[in-house]
Each structure stands twice: as C-alpha cells, then as structure tokens.
Protein 1
Amino acid sequence: MGQTCFRAVCVLSLVVAGFQASAASAMVTARVCLADEVTPLAPADPNVPEVYRDIMVGTRLTIFITSDTAKPCRVKFWLSWETERQGALSPRGYDESIGNYVGSCLPAAGERALVTMYRDDLGVGVDLLPAWNATAGDLFILDYGAVNTGVCTIGLYALSAVPIPVVISQEPPDPPPFEATLIQVLSFHHVPSRDFDGDTLVNFVDYASLAGLWGQSVVSDPNAAVAADLNGDERVDVRDLALFGEYWLERTQAVGLSPEPNEIDSVP
Ligand SMILES: [Ca+2]
Ligand SMILES: [Ca+2]
C-alpha cells in the first residue's frame, strides 16, 4: 500500500511538473532582429539576454512578437515620453478605414488581429491583440528606431493573466498607467553614429570624414551631421578611430529601406 501511494505521488508530481513546464513555456515573447528581419540582435552579455549590444543612433531594428502556443494573450508595449525621446516604436501599414496597422499583423495572429497605437499625456502605447484563431508562431512585427544616444528601456506587458510569474531582471524606468503584468524588458543602448554621411552604411566615405578632422579639436555633438569625435573628448584621434572601427561596414538599415519622413531629422 505504501509503495502504491509512493508511486501515485511520483506520477502526480510528474504530471504537475509537466503542467508547470508547459505553462511556463506557453508565453508571448519579443524577439529583436536587425532591419533585415532575419539576423538576431546579439546580447551584450549572454547571461542577460534582454540587454543587447550597443547600436548606433539611426539604427533600425525589427521586433517580432511570438507565441509558442495557440490562444496567445493580448500584449502591449508602453513607452513614457522620456523613453520615446530615446527610441521610437512603429507599427506598420495603417489602414485608416478599419483603424488597424494591418502591416504589423502576421499570419499566425489570425484573421482580424488588431494592432493599435495611441499617444496621450504620459506616453505611447502599442496594443497587440491576436485573433480568436491565432496559432503559435510570429504574431506581429514592429519597427524600432534608435533616436538619441543613451539607454532606451521598453516594457512588454500582458493584459491578461499569465500562467506563472515571469522573472524580470530589470524594469523600465517609468511604470505604465494601467494594470498589466510585465512579461519582458527590452533594453537598447544607443551610441553615436559612425555613418557620418547618413547613407546607412559605415564605410570609406565615413572614414574620410573622420580622417579629414584627424588631430583637430572639435565641438562634441553626438547627434550632429558630422560627429567624428565619438568619445566626446573634443579631439579626433586614435580613440575615435578605435570606436569607429567597431562598426566598420555595418548598416543601420536594410538595403533599399528608406527612413520614414518623421525619422529623417533624427538620422545623422
Ligand atoms: Ca556612410
Ligand atoms: Ca575624441
């Protein structure tokens, strides 16, 4: 009898453990890629996956919202105005007739999935609502643009109950003005652009701009059209060359992708 009870407890434990593992994995998460929509943005530290490697001002990224189960929950990004000054989140393809950013809805989100965006006194919200017939996979896609140097920390919130508490190693600087569960934090570090001529590629033309100011003292302005003084010590020298070299031949945007009109001023 004792052995039977022991086996029963073991089986029950396995069932519960299996359920918890299933519940833990049944999540909606954000995945960050470069502008090519394929290459993942590498983390700065493999042990802290939500903090990514530094990106240049003017860099465009793509953010996929993915579910590993059918019946994904409704989620929402929210940025305070302070955060939005650092980085801009943009849904795609607004259809005015139905009030939906249809370009951000991917097939797995189901028919009549809905993406809306609003701006109020406190900040910017992007609401992502999968349809009743959503399936596992990539549900939505958004664009992200690095606007100013500094840190931009964005929270992804679930607007319904999540299966188990999610462990978050950091929180966005500003709490959202609504009740929701923080399920993921994206933290982007923006550094001065090395693409001095704004053609989206760091190459010899940009190197020539830096070399043309070699040894000179300049006024440091990381967002100026030409900002060869990358470390801000008001002199262009080998230290700036080393920082420049870290992004050699990198692109800030995908080939053939033009900046949106409201972002042109922010792209150095
Ligand atoms: Ca360039
Ligand atoms: Ca310098």
Protein 2
Amino acid sequence: MNIEKAYNIWANQYDTNKNRTRDLDKKSTIDTLSKLDFENVLELGCGTGKNTSWLLKKSKRIIGLDFSQEMLNKAKAKISDKRVSFRKADLNKDWETENDFTDLITCSLTLEHIKDLNHIFHQANLKLRKNGIFFISELHPFMQYSGSKAKYETENGTYELEVYTHHISEYIDNAKNNNLKLVEVNEWFDQNEKNEIPRLISFVFKK
Ligand SMILES: C[S@@+](CC[C@H](N)C(=O)[O-])C[C@H]1O[C@@H](n2cnc3c(N)ncnc32)[C@H](O)[C@@H]1O
C-alpha cells in the first residue's frame, strides 16, 4: 500500500489511538514556537490538524498541505476558520503557493515519508520570507536506527508504513545547501527520561 492510502486508512484512528510520538510532537511544537508570533504559516503534512488549532492562535493565516484526503477531511471537520486553508498536495512536487510569503514553515512527523530532503529544503527556501523560520519535528534517527517507524493497528495486525531514515547531518547539510541556517536543535524524551533514546528531534532553521 502506498503512503497516501495508508494515511487515508489511519485517519479514522489517528487522533484517538495511543500514540506517544504524536503527543510528544505537540509538546515540541508548542515549547519551541510559543515564544514567537507569525503572520503567515505554511504547515507541511498538516494531517488531521493536530497542531493547526494551536498555530492559529499565533498567526493570521495558515495554509496546510497534505496528500491524504481523509486526513484533510478530519482537519476540515475540526477547524473551520476563514484564516485556514487546507489543500491537497504532494510535498514531493513543487508546492503551489506564492514565493517569499511565509514567516513560518512547520513540518511534524512527515519527513520520514519523504526520500528527497533536498527538494523539501529547496521549496522551503523559496516560500520563506527573509528571516523566516523552518521548524521541523521528527522521529529521532536513533529511534529509526533501532527499528521504530510510523505504524498503526488494523484487524490484521500492525501495519508499518514506508519510511526513509534521515541522519542528523542530512537535515543540516540540506538546510545549508539551501541557504537556511541552523539556529536551534532539541531532543525530546518520553516523560523527560533522559537515560532512554530520545523519541523526537526538532530543528529551527532560519532563512
Ligand atoms: C504522522 S502524520 C503527521 C500529521 C501532523 N503533522 C501531526 O503532527 O499530527 C504524517 C502526515 O504527512 C502526510 N504526508 C506524508 N507524505 C506526504 C507527501 N509526500 N505529501 C503530502 N503529505 C504527506 C500524511 O498524509 C500525514 O497526514
């Protein structure tokens, strides 16, 4: 099954099932971005809009891109606000928004499904205004090395999605090659258990 179809199925249980990665991502997003305010936000892989409602408190306009119609349907059912536009789009293609328009791009738990990170950073650089921020929060590569990947339960057992491992250096090198500077990196642990492998890594890059 391809990734888009897998998320169309996952959509029904994405918000309600136990999912420590999803919940910790919400914390990493809020903790990192709460000190800032934004005019325009571009949310990559917005899914069911888990982070969109909070981002809306901090900004004037949000465009959420995602290729799963069912995930987008959940987001639209939750958030009907004229300031938010949810659009069906494949991030592996060129993003159909204007250039130089956004102060913040966020991307949570989505890049593990994207093979070519250079394309993402290239598009991000085009869409960001000068001094704009690109916030990324992803499953930590240490978790990926130890076999963890996006998955959900079905009647026939656990379904694991197609994923790509991205090393820390890959994020940093691709950002640098596309004129984005690393300004912050954080590792996020389950209940602050710092003796365990960190579950998530987050980056803040600046144009
Ligand atoms: C784990 S969910 C994360 C959703 C949301 N960001 C969150 O934190 O809850 C990953 C999302 O990325 C989307 N996605 C994955 N690959 C994509 C692609 N190539 N283009 C657009 N969306 C994609 C999926 O449809 C899904 O909604």
